[in-house]
Amino acid sequence: MAIHIGRRKFIVTLASAAAWPIVARAQQDRIRHIGILMNLLVDDPEGQARVAALLQGLREHGWIEGRNVRVEYRWGHPDPDRVRKDAADLVALAPDVIVSSGTPTVAALQRATQSVPIVFAQVVDPVGSGFVESLARPGGNITGFSVFEYITAGKWLELLKEVAPQVTRAAVLRDLRLPSGSGQFGAIQAVAPGLGVEVAAVGLGSPDEIEHSIAAFAQRSNSGLIITGSTQALDHRKLIIALADRYRLPAVYSFRYFVVFGGLMSYGPNSIDPFRLAAAYVDRILKGEKPADLPVQAPIKYELVINLAAAKTIGLPVPSALLVRADEVIE
């Protein structure tokens, strides 16, 4: 049976079919909008390295700033109200996706939106912080890359005892506002009796409070420090490292960048790689996938970094067995 199509309808159908590739190409070529909300100051070299890694990762996936993607930046600030304002301002721009790092910063974004996709690259406990329902199934508009499992915190105390066997007391510096701070301290407490070390939690507050707390703790001999992972510790890293040197306190830090700035030793994941990896999630979201379906990924490698100059400053000989195991030794 012949099928007759009216001339007008045929022309409309033909025109629509011809337009399909043009529409598809226009959708593909349109400028996409990415927001970046960092937890570090704009002049912090660590923050600049993280953003550079993210942009490099985006380029590897074909997203070029100024060509097919526009990037709006907001940098960290010590005032929590300013962070909340920056988060709200960024959300108001209606980006296709926002990349962020640090629990307080991601929390500010979460309060600002439940719809704009968010990819985090530095969060200790995304489930405990309420960002995702589970690591395997985030369930909402947030996903990303976590930085620690709590068991890692116990390793910090083991390393402190190995590099400085005389230590019998350790101050654990943590951000009292974060659930992850309690979790990390709990993991340290669990291994402390077996190592013969008494541990005490020290809250990270203002510079004056940090200086007073460390000075008071250092009054007794055989003391050491553990600096847990948090934005507060990162913001005050120069002060903490200087105080450890002044009071000749062996200290173990959560990230390499502390050691680069003069700290004694660190054990933790690479702090730059998660931002490069986050670019892959941004790419998938821009192509239509949902954060709820992208599992939170944990680090697969931890690195031990030792600064021999810092050890010399506090008069501490580093055991050769520890140096052999180190991924990096800074002279």
What does this structure look like?
The protein is of the alpha/beta class and 331 residues long. The protein has 2 domains: 139 residues, 3-Layer(aba) Sandwich (Rossmann fold), CATH 3.40.50.2300; 146 residues, 3-Layer(aba) Sandwich (Rossmann fold). It contains 13 helices and 12 strands. It has a 7-stranded mixed β-sheet with strand order 7-6-8-9-10-11-12, sandwiched between helices. Helix 10 links the parallel strand 9 and strand 10. The longest helix is centred in the N-terminal third of the chain and has 23 residues. It is elongated, with a radius of gyration of 24 Å.
The first-to-last residue Cα distance is 87 Å
Query: How many domains, as an integer?
Result: 2
Overall CATH architecture of the largest domain? 3-Layer(aba) Sandwich
- Beta fraction of the residues? 15-25%
Average per-residue pLDDT, rounded, comes to 90
Helix and strand element order: HEHEHEHEEHEHEHEHHEHEHEHHE
